[in-house]
């Protein structure tokens, strides 16, 4: 596979704040790549440098082999960037805004693509509406459409679903997935970890301006040795057998429900212990670690998420 984006030793500071330190990242053509990290990690700054909207202190970024500073025209054509902040010109309706945006890329007759985008992003009814009358979610979708009018090879979405409702989020992802199947490279930042877990093949986790890990989603999730078991009992009991004391558990007597956290090795031992005990099990549910567990462990966020 060839390289879509190569980020090499990027440093960026705002005054005393080191927003990015020695960031290295290589994204292959055709990947669906996730860039995750808590607020302030530096994700948007990195994307702005890629887009030519912010200056780096040192390092380089190439897009399909072209340097973003030396060859801005070529790299802007290859990239479709959806910024995190929604900025929409209030004087144009969505269709006009998309025509204008096509014009920036020298594309004059882009009606087919514009209609495809308006339909895919469910903006067809609003095609002629004043932009100032669009809801927040609609404006965000228009921003996505704007980034795609020139049919870029690489699509970078910076928190694209913030403020978009669940239904539209799903249709948006169907469309982005289709573009990825057609060969487009997708880079997504999101703080909805489930979204990244469902969509992305490879994930980089950033914190405080540094990349702390890059791996496939499977490897990241498998790196956490954790199984969460939920047991539902048939009988009413006051106390659990003593073997439970070896594990961290919660017992809800009224609901006859036990939640217990185990390692992969302990899981089999535990199941055997339950089997040999007097407990009568009505239902059992075993869940593996999630991307969220990896994220929390690596970013030391612990319980203090902002959601
Ligand atoms: N224009 C700016 N001026 C000063 N500080 C900034 C500016 N943009 C971002 N920062 C700071 O840089 C850090 C990284 O921000 P950002 O790239 O937006 O992170 P993320 O997108 O991961 O939330 C944060 O501490 C943020 O406050
Ligand atoms: Mg951001």
Compile the SSE list and pairings.
Elements: E1 3-14, E2 17-28, E3 32-36, H1 43-51, E4 58-63, E5 66-67, H2 72-78, E6 79-82, H3 94-104, H4 111-120, H5 136-148, E7 154-158, H6 166-181, E8 185-189, H7 193-199, E9 202-207, E10 210-216, H8 217-222, E11 227-233, E12 249-252, E13 257-262, H9 264-276, E14 281-288, H10 291-299
Parallel strand pairs: 3-8, 3-9, 6-7, 7-8
Antiparallel strand pairs: 1-2, 1-4, 4-5, 9-10, 11-13, 11-14, 12-13
Helix pairs in contact: 3-5
Bound molecules: adenosine-5'-diphosphate and magnesium ion.
Which labels suit this protein?
6-stranded mixed sheet; Alpha-Beta Plaits; 2 domains; Rossmann fold; binds adenosine-5'-diphosphate; 307 residues; disordered C terminus; binds magnesium ion; 10 helices; alpha/beta; 29% strand; 4-stranded antiparallel sheet
- Kindly report the name of the CATH homologous superfamily of the largest domain: P-loop containing nucleotide triphosphate hydrolases
Structural class: alpha/beta
- Gyration radius, in Å: 24 Å
Nearest-integer average pLDDT: 92
Name the overall outline. Answer: elongated
How would you name the oligomeric state of the polypeptide chains in this document? single chain
CATH architecture annotation of the largest domain: 3-Layer(aba) Sandwich
Strands, total number: 14
CA(first)-CA(last) distance? 37 Å
> CATH class of the largest domain, anyone?
Alpha Beta
Beta-strand percent range: 25-35%
| Number of self-contained structural domains | 2
Strand order of the largest sheet: 6-7-8-3-9-10
Largest beta-sheet details: 6 strands, mixed
